[in-house]
Design goal:
With 161 residues, the chain is α/β, with parallel strands linked by helices. It has four helices and six strands, in the order E-H-E-H-E-H-E-H-E-E.
Amino acid sequence: MKNLILIRHAKSSWNTPVQDFDRLLEQRGREDAYLVANYFVKFLPSNFVIHSSSARRARETAVIFATTVLYPVESIVLRDNLYTFDANQLERVIKSISNDFDKVILFGHNDAITNFVDKFGDIFIDNVPTAGLVWLEFETDSWAGIAKCKTIKTIFPRNLK
């Protein structure tokens, strides 16, 4: 059984003239990330690994979650190929994850995340919001073999406020 927890990066700022890859989190984004992370702690699976897009806003969100759940920040796997907005690219990355890991928490971007969870999960989600979390459980022992699955949990900031 493979468990994938997808988390969309928190709300980022468009106010600073930087490349998209380098955008910072807004204050609301940091607050929402902490809100979701603090709620998620009670559902935290054992023996997981964190992968994150190397884009700054995704990295910052991953660090907030990691520090909240007491995961070593230096163990976050930063991946350039997770800086994608395309669900097919996201699927290829996920299918390439080592089978040594059964539980992966992955930080990335929309539209890739929403389209991925709608393709594989059993619950339609119109839009995974910033700092939103969707937990999928696949009935397979191989990441390469993922197919339709069960949506175990969603945690969205608006539901915690």
